[in-house]
From TrEMBL, chain A:
<dbReference type="GO" id="GO:0005886">
    <property type="term" value="C:plasma membrane"/>
</dbReference>
<feature type="transmembrane region" description="Helical">
    <location>
        <begin position="6"/>
        <end position="26"/>
    </location>
</feature>
<dbReference type="InterPro" id="IPR001750">
    <property type="entry name" value="ND/Mrp_TM"/>
</dbReference>
<feature type="transmembrane region" description="Helical">
    <location>
        <begin position="214"/>
        <end position="238"/>
    </location>
</feature>
<feature type="transmembrane region" description="Helical">
    <location>
        <begin position="377"/>
        <end position="398"/>
    </location>
</feature>
<feature type="transmembrane region" description="Helical">
    <location>
        <begin position="460"/>
        <end position="483"/>
    </location>
</feature>
<feature type="transmembrane region" description="Helical">
    <location>
        <begin position="33"/>
        <end position="54"/>
    </location>
</feature>
<feature type="transmembrane region" description="Helical">
    <location>
        <begin position="282"/>
        <end position="301"/>
    </location>
</feature>
<feature type="transmembrane region" description="Helical">
    <location>
        <begin position="245"/>
        <end position="270"/>
    </location>
</feature>
Automatic annotation (TrEMBL), chain B:
<feature type="transmembrane region" description="Helical">
    <location>
        <begin position="209"/>
        <end position="233"/>
    </location>
</feature>
<dbReference type="InterPro" id="IPR050586">
    <property type="entry name" value="CPA3_Na-H_Antiporter_D"/>
</dbReference>
<comment type="similarity">
    <text>Belongs to the CPA3 antiporters (TC 2.A.63) subunit D family.</text>
</comment>
<keyword id="KW-1133">Transmembrane helix</keyword>
<feature type="transmembrane region" description="Helical">
    <location>
        <begin position="245"/>
        <end position="265"/>
    </location>
</feature>
<feature type="transmembrane region" description="Helical">
    <location>
        <begin position="374"/>
        <end position="393"/>
    </location>
</feature>
<feature type="transmembrane region" description="Helical">
    <location>
        <begin position="38"/>
        <end position="60"/>
    </location>
</feature>
<feature type="transmembrane region" description="Helical">
    <location>
        <begin position="413"/>
        <end position="439"/>
    </location>
</feature>
<feature type="transmembrane region" description="Helical">
    <location>
        <begin position="277"/>
        <end position="297"/>
    </location>
</feature>
Length: 503, 498
């Protein structure tokens, strides 16, 4: 029996998008209305959950009142509620934008059937994906997390293939293979864990001492998750998959989907298997992260197409998340804080960037960076959104990206690993090169430029991107709140210190 | 935090809000845009005057916003911020009037004036910043808001200049950020104080603090155009004249110089720095910059480029004075030059803009006899130029007088020599312009003459340089009057116990 009191709010983020997804299959006409309702309901329920969480601390809910180890437990602590909140806000923006995007495309007289078909498939897939993402953040054991990972991959691949162009289908197929490989590797790790410890629950696992088999399990799970998170040099599948997808899909994949597997990875390393993690291991990840930052940025600088540039920027930005590993290992104060700011700011900014790129593509008919001069004259809001999101990616104050950068540098100095701080600085200088390569084109309106005939578009095509970019920009000013949320949530794993010594 | 602190927020909003509205205004609404701009800048001046009176009578203005542990955004008005914000707000009003006239029929004005307002907002933010983090916030935002102004013309040349500007300033900004974070890990969250951080730290972290000091100075030195970080400044000349005026007199290079002052006086403090023995390096860097800028200026035929190199040279007088931090006279000379250089340089840039806009003159070789065609403009130009050389009764003389006194008192012959040589060089590169303009005879027709009716040029272009020229003379003669920059600087100095 479901009563909407107390902790029952916790299942709404699962049920609402899932139900919306199911009904979207049935009726194309109501698809957007249903999805929007689900998005708003989701935001509301997460607001309520957040409130409860701040009052009482971490929440656990046993579905159907079956206790672990038999039943399925849902759990919320600081990091997971922040991820849910990020998904809710970004997802709402993407939902609104997708409406404007498809409406604009369907209004084009040619190939009308194809665009309608795309929209028809988009909504159910997106809602299913959303429900699975929420499921991942709410899950409390590593097997359920495997299931949600698979449930994320399948709609994500289908969405990536949605545009129907050969390039996007090849990219989506590659994405599918990588994703399956990653899931398999992760599943193998889960099997090892179950064989060794006999439990799957995160909190129960965190109390176990490390062993050889445990290490092997962690290694297998990590490799799988790294593949899915596209850490350099396993990023090869990401740029084509993200750049060739439809704009709302690119936004979803880049800002939310990769964060799911990263969240799980970070959780495993620092909350669950903290006792098994050693310094060489975190240094390997940090080095790969540094490689990602530099390589991704250099590739972004070289790109001629806007969407590829933004996709490579994602590769580069994901690198920062891995720089956090060696820093979190030695400088314990803020391990979730740094990552949380990076993830939140990047989710908002990157989705804003992909939305803006999509709008530019729709209006200009191309996304060749060198020919973008003059765009400002007819879609100023979009251009502004892109520039503000760029401020975030460069990590300039007062954006959330700046706070993340500050935390990274300060813990790199505190733990005497200043070289990571220098990598962070180099990364943001390179980021400013690729951001301004585009933005400087925007600012110019060539002499004698004539504004082309433009088709009317709904405000939904422009404003969601700006609002998300502004949220990312102002995140730095409201930084105490996310930190407060994180502090409230530490108790779930507090019985073990990050180095595995009982406190 | 106190109730007075909100005044500081209002001061920032008085140009921020008009800026946002202007972005949204359609291009044709010239009247509304100008009204907004002028109302904003007048309001800002009034608010800043209220603040100045409050500061003088000992009231404390402070407002803070904690961000993450150890990082607090803090606005705090002290006499030094009053000096810089008064300068910026007054010159902003004049530059706005000038810009309205200058851009009368050019495209993209909403864009231009929007960024113009934002630019002044962050400059005032730099003045009011109460700790290094807040300073950094506005310092980086200054880069972002000035960039669109520099590339406003949209030509390849402008884009190239803009690119170089970004490379220089972002590298400087990155260095600065790293140094700020590093300093924070040692001193903890420290706001600006008149004594600097506790000297106990000096015992334990001497090398690190020395390294941080050099990084901080290099970071702000990029915007202050200290050699060898000055490469962006002459190129940024492609910007429209009001932008150059603002960049050189108020916003960018001044922000850099102001940063040096803050770091020396309020972050490290006189005591700590004299024990670290790093200031002689700053002194030498500033001396080299003063001479280098003057020598380069001699070789330029392009008027704005010559003025740009002159800025490189003149702004370093501020650093030169500050580097002799235990000599009150030198510090007075440096601080007061912050205001004086701004007044003189903005006059010169306004006049250069007038020549370009009215007669199409961009080169010094085209200026023969121009004073007969534009006597008022050239009169203002001459006052500015004589001030730069340091001839009484202009404000330039006051600055150099105090710098010289400080040099004598410290027995620093380097400074005296630099002052003498650079004044000579100033005369070399300014006097020929004046003699040619006043006494030369016109040899070729003006490159691109336009007529503006009754006056020699458009009234909104003519008035601002005349006003600043008059101020240059008045403040030079009445240097010791109540509320002159010099008296105010003396008031500042007392706060540091010098």
């Amino acid at each position: 029996m479901i009563s909407f009191e107390g902790q029952s709010w916790i299942i709404l983020p699962l049920i609402l998008p899932l139900a919306a997804g199911l009904f979207c299959f049935l009726s194309r006409r109501w698809a957007f209305a249903l999805s929007l309702t689900a998005a708003l309901g989701n935001l509301l329920s997460i607001g309520v959950l957040l409130n409860q969480f701040l009052d009482t601390g971490p929440l656990t809910y046993n579905v159907g009142n079956w206790k672990t180890p038999l039943g399925i437990a849902l759990r919320i602590d600081g990091p997971s509620i922040l991820m849910l909140l990020m998904t809710a806000v970004t997802g709402l923006g993407i939902t609104l934008y997708a409406r404007g995007y498809f409406a604009f495309r369907i209004a084009v007289p040619k190939r009308i059937g194809r665009h309608e078909r795309q929209e028809r498939f988009f909504w159910p897939l997106w809602m299913t994906l959303w429900a699975s993402l929420n499921g991942l953040f709410l899950s409390a054991d590593i097997f359920n997390m495997y299931v949600t990972l698979e449930l994320i991959s399948i709609p994500a691949v289908a969405l990536a293939a949605l545009s129907g162009k050969p390039a996007s289908q090849i990219a989506a197929f590659r994405y599918l293979l990588v994703s399956l490989l990653g899931s398999l590797s992760y599943l193998l790790g889960v099997v090892f864990v179950y064989k060794t410890y006999g439990v799957l629950d995160l909190v129960l696992l965190s109390g176990k001492t490390a062993s050889g088999a445990g290490m092997a399990a962690l290694a297998l799970m990590s490799v799988g998750l790294l593949l899915k998170t596209a850490l350099f040099p396993m990023h090869f599948w990401l740029p084509p998959a993200h750049a060739n997808a439809l704009a709302p899909v690119s936004a979803i994949l880049s800002s939310l989907v990769v964060k799911g597997s990263f969240y799980l990875l970070f959780r495993l390393w620092f909350d669950v298997f903290a006792s098994a993690v050693t310094e060489p291991m975190v240094n390997i990840l940090g080095t790969l992260g540094a490689g990602a930052i530099v390589w991704g940025a250099l590739q972004a600088i070289r790109q001629k197409r806007l969407k590829l540039l933004v996709a490579y920027s994602t590769v580069s930005q994901l690198g920062y998340l891995f720089i956090a590993f060696p820093l979190a290992y030695l400088d314990m104060g803020t391990h979730w804080g740094t990552v949380a700011f990076m993830v939140l700011a990047h989710a908002c900014a990157k989705s804003a960037m992909f939305m803006a790129s999509g709008t530019i593509f729709l209006h200009a008919g191309h996304d060749r960076i060198n020919d973008l001069a003059g765009v400002r004259s007819y879609i100023p809001v979009t251009v502004f959104a892109y520039a503000i999101a760029g401020v975030n990616i460069m990590g300039l104050p007062p954006s959330g990206g700046f706070i993340a950068k500050w935390l990274l540098i300060s813990s790199s100095i505190n733990s005497s690993q200043w070289w990571w701080g220098i990598i962070v600085m180099i990364g943001s200088l390179l980021a400013s090169v690729y951001i301004f390569r585009v933005v400087s084109r925007f600012f110019v309106i060539p002499e004698g430029y004539k504004v082309p005939d433009r088709r009317p578009h709904s405000p939904l095509l422009e404003w969601p991107a700006l609002v998300l970019a502004l949220i990312a920009l102002l995140l730095g000013l409201i930084a105490p709140y996310p930190l407060h949320i994180l502090e409230t949530g530490n108790s779930l794993f507090s019985m073990v210190s990050p180095k595995g010594l009982p406190l | 935090m106190n109730a007075h602190g909100w005044l500081l927020v209002c001061i920032l909003l008085s140009s921020f809000l008009p800026g946002i509205v202007i972005f949204a205004l359609p291009e044709e609404k010239t009247g509304l845009r100008t009204t907004l701009n002028l109302c904003g800048s007048v309001m800002k001046i009034v608010l800043i005057m209220v603040m100045n009176i409050g500061i003088f009578s000992g009231r404390i203005y402070e407002i803070s916003l904690p961000v993450i542990p150890g990082v607090v955004l803090l606005l705090n008005a002290d006499p030094l911020s009053a000096l810089f914000s008064t300068l910026s707000s007054v010159l902003w009003l004049l530059t706005t009037i000038y810009a309205v006239g200058y851009l009368e029929d050019s495209p993209n004005r909403s864009h231009f004036f929007g960024y113009f307002s934002l630019c002044v907002t962050v400059t005032i933010g730099i003045a009011l910043a109460g700790n290094l983090v807040t300073f950094l916030l506005f310092y980086e935002m200054l880069t972002l808001t000035t960039y669109p102004l520099i590339i406003h013309r949209g030509t390849e040349k402008a884009l190239r200049a803009g690119r170089n500007y970004l490379i220089y300033t972002f590298c400087g900004g990155g260095l600065f950020l790293f140094a700020v974070v590093w300093l924070q890990t040692i001193t903890g969250p420290a706001s600006f104080t008149t004594t600097g951080f506790s000297s106990v730290l000096l015992e334990s972290h001497r090398t690190q603090l020395a390294a941080i000091f050099l990084m901080l100075i290099a970071g702000v030195g990029v915007k202050a155009a200290i050699v060898p970080f000055h490469g962006w400044l002459p190129q940024a000349m492609v910007a429209p004249a009001p932008v150059s005026a603002l960049l050189h007199a108020v916003a960018v290079v001044k922000a850099g110089a102001f940063g040096i002052i803050r770091i020396v006086l309020d972050v490290y403090g006189v005591e700590n720095l004299s024990r670290l023995r790093l200031l002689p390096y700053l002194n030498i860097a500033a001396a080299i910059t003063v001479l280098w800028g003057s020598i380069m200026a001699l070789q330029q035929d392009d008027l704005k480029r010559r003025l740009a190199f002159s800025t490189v040279s003149q702004v370093s007088y501020i650093a030169l004075g500050i580097s002799l931090v235990d000599q009150p006279f030198a510090v007075i000379g440096g601080l007061v030059h912050l205001v004086h250089q701004g007044l003189m340089k903005i006059t010169l840039f306004f006049c250069a803009g007038n020549l370009a806009e009215t007669l199409g003159i961009h080169r010094i070789s085209e200026m023969k006899g121009v004073a007969r065609r534009m006597p008022l403009t050239m009169a203002a130009f001459s006052i500015g130029a004589l001030g730069m050389i340091g001839i009484p009764p202009t404000v330039g003389f006051v600055s150099k007088w105090y710098l010289g006194l400080g040099g004598l008192a410290a027995g620093n012959w380097l400074l005296i020599a630099v002052l003498a040589v650079s004044s000579l060089l100033n005369a070399f590169y300014f006097l020929p312009i004046l003699t040619q303009a006043w006494f030369g005879t016109q040899t070729a027709p003006w490159p691109e003459e336009r007529s503006f009716g009754r006056f020699e040029t458009r009234l909104s272009l003519l008035l601002p340089p005349l006003i600043t020229a008059v101020i240059v003379i008045v403040l030079g003669t009445l240097a010791n009057a109540q509320f002159s920059p010099l008296t105010w600087v003396n008031f500042i100095i007392r706060g540091y116990g010098l």
